[in-house]
Specification:
The protein is of the alpha/beta class. It is built from 13 helices and 8 strands. The chain starts with 5 loop residues before the first helix and ends in a 15-residue tail after the last helix.
Length: about 270
């Protein structure tokens, strides 16, 4: 039997998953993160400085810890790159800037083999990671998450979450804030943003689908779990490194700083 997708097991049990975010293009830093207890790790090819070749090495590094689910965020709704990352062993894909059901359907199709989709066959490293019978189970293993972060995506939320084969949605809080005419923030406090975020998780849960979100810190992640989110990203590797380094220097000099929330740019 192919390697199961532990994220699905966590969600079916009614629990939520801690997700690490990898913006640093290094297999070594990805391996270090994999050993820190995350349920999943997402290689970020959109706003991280990661290309495909680096992503493959990072997915291999994540695989050194069997319990950690390898994920990837693509830079766009591009079937070619989606399929290549799945072939490289990603068990979940996060796709940004989904605006309507048509775009959501195209995204799902790229994640599924026929007859459920249009994914081309060639699971090179996916077979090494998932097992010899990976292809027979891939349509049930791979998780497809559409990001809701644009004005059109908010307006068309219900039709997006109703897309067959879509496993869930993922909130990009900074772009979502911009779409609402607000400053970008990983931890929005404006009432209008909070109302939209609540609406997104409610719409997803109503359809039996997962809602995920990027957060600016562990406290926010805990709050969002309480609101029904089942996949919560806690900053990214770059910000975690910067916060820890800044705290170490300040502590050595006798003045521990307050950790910054979230990355200063992108996520």
């Amino acid at each position: 039997m192919a390697r199961p997708n532990r994220l699905r097991e966590i969600w079916q049990a009614g629990d939520w998953a801690t997700n690490g975010w990898l913006a640093i293009p290094s297999s070594y830093s990805a391996e270090l993160m994999a050993h820190q207890g995350w349920d999943s790790l997402t290689v970020d090819l959109q706003h991280g400085v990661v290309d495909y070749q680096a992503a493959v090495g990072m997915l291999q590094a994540i695989s050194t810890v069997p319990s950690v689910v390898p994920m990837a965020r693509v830079p766009w709704n591009d079937p070619a790159l989606i399929m290549k990352l799945l072939d490289a062993g990603a068990y979940a894909i996060v796709c940004p800037m989904i605006n309507n059901r048509r775009e959501a359907e195209a995204f799902v199709a790229a994640c599924r083999y026929p007859p459920l989709g249009t994914r081309s066959f060639g699971p090179n490293r996916a077979v090494l990671y998932g097992g010899a019978d990976y292809a027979q189970h891939a349509n049930q293993l791979v998780v497809a998450l559409a990001m809701i972060e644009t004005k059109a995506g908010i307006d068309n939320l219900e039709e997006i979450v109703d897309t067959p084969g879509l496993d869930g949605v993922y909130v990009g809080p900074s772009d979502l804030s911009l779409a609402l005419g607000l400053p970008p923030s990983a931890d929005p406090t404006d009432k209008s943003a909070l109302e939209v975020i609540a609406r997104i998780v409610a719409a997803a849960r109503k359809k039996g689908k997962v809602a995920g979100m990027f957060t600016g810190g562990p406290e926010q992640a805990a709050r969002m779990a309480g609101q029904g989110f089942q996949l919560l990203t806690i900053m990214n590797d770059g910000r975690l490194l910067a916060n820890a380094a800044k705290a170490a220097v300040a502590t050595a000099r006798g003045a521990a700083p307050k950790a910054e929330k979230g990355p200063k740019t992108g996520y």
